[in-house]
Amino acid sequence: ARSALSGIGGVTLGDDFLSQLITAKPVVVLANVSPEDAATGNAFSERLAAHIASSEEAAEAEAANLRAAVAGSKASDNPPAGMLAARRCVVVSAPLEAEVSQLDDEEFRLEYLESYGMKDGLRALPRVLAESQSLLGLVSYLTVGEQEARAWFVPKGSRAAEAAGAIHSDFTKNFEQAD
């Protein structure tokens, strides 16, 4: 595959421009394996992970070339390091996940997953969400009320007042302190 960035010359390439390119978007690839391979993957998922790692290195090299090409631009116009290299591979077993989703007994569900080598009963969805959150540079915090529990996502490094603003803009204005 050829990157959308190759062959662009004499153009000011700022973060706004780069963020619109599909090649600049983070990617989580799911390697669907048999239930027996759910815990460790198999030869194909290992090859896929290796391919993703090598394409991540190639994308990083392309980003370095792009930064060099726009070296005459303002520093703020240069793409951030690693922007084009955000790729991860997560091994999942859709058949196993489908079976487990039908089980009502939590204790049996954990035993069943452990019989396939899934320690701590860690299912695919939490792993996919954690990888996605990491790639996007987000952290989450929870709020719990009488009627709902909700996760809020904010950029890593956000201050407490900014995080509170994710719920409502008035919280940012009137924020006093966090413990």
Automatic annotation (TrEMBL):
It holds the Pfam family YchF-GTPase_C. Coiled coil: none annotated. It comes from Spumella elongata. This is YchF C-terminal domain-containing protein. It comes from the Eukaryota. Residues 138-178 form the YchF C-terminal domain. GO terms for cellular component: cytoplasm. One of its GO terms (molecular function) is ATP hydrolysis activity.
